[in-house]
From TrEMBL:
It comes from Microlunatus ginsengisoli. Catalyzes the synthesis of alpha-ribazole-5'-phosphate from nicotinate mononucleotide (NAMN) and 5,6-dimethylbenzimidazole (DMB). Pathway: Nucleoside biosynthesis; alpha-ribazole biosynthesis; alpha-ribazole from 5,6-dimethylbenzimidazole: step 1/2. Belongs to the CobT family. This is Nicotinate-nucleotide--dimethylbenzimidazole phosphoribosyltransferase. Its EC number is 2.4.2.21.
Amino acid sequence: MIAPPSRAAEQAARTRLAALAKPLGALGRVEDLAAWLAGCQDSCPPRPPERVRLTVLAGDHGIAAKGVSAYPPQVTAAMVHAFASGTAAAGVLARQHGVALRVLDIAVDADLDTPAGVGAHKIRRSSGSIDVEDALTAAELDAALLAGRAIAREEIEAGADLLILGDMGIGNTTPEAALIAATFGLTADEVVGRGTGVDDAGLARKTAAVAAALARAGDRASDPRARLQALGSADLAAGVGFLIAAATAGVPVLLDGLATLAELSVADELAPGTAAWCAAGHRSTEPAQRLALEKLGLLPVLDLDLRLGEGSGALLALPVLRSAALLAGEMALLSDLAG
């Protein structure tokens, strides 16, 4: 069980927010963000996050060969190069908001010619096709979880006061949907969305693949480790380890889209209390992500019909979180004006 954020600091922040020079509750959910951040920092008022670090975990997925994506698997390797060069969408947004970005090859199905360190935590090339086989061996699962923990520690040691977790991998919404379905007892029809924009035939193939994966995993999926091994991937398992390590260290995480919600759904079961250290950056168009938000009790900051991934939605939400802290700390108190 992971220790929760400071309830005393959160309550102190809510008391301060209620006393600001404004009608009670007039800042709506911005006040909730400020209180959450205060609890995570054990500080009232909270400090605007300044040392924000985005880690993009990249990996391929065997299920992509079954026609579940609108793009071929080779795009994953190309996008890793775009992240490394800063030309991906997340790179543009990271520069805008002063966020340090690191991309890591966890399971890309290629030997990449990228800057040193990108492959430092590589587990394997691609992951198993979950409709017919487990995504990982037990040893690979352990290695991926440990890699994720190590990556989070590296980001924290680099000075992060807020972490963002991004994803890159063609076909990844299929295992993500399967993990969420298995975690919350949902069906393939309930969780599967169009991902990269598949047509009706692609959507049918994707739904059938998730249904087959859930049937193959069977009762094993009731155990979070076995679920991750059977239905996940190396990059998703690394994300689970990352979230657990961040929560254990008391460093808040601003979540992105479907990938991070799938990772959190398993992480919070393996290490109860992880979700309390996470805020949802946005609500995506993917039904599995929306359902996981509801099940985990997370209200997203933004709702912009995003479905890109990469950490892009969290990066777009970051200014709102920073504004929440500034308002809590710098607005006048009503009592000061009255005096």
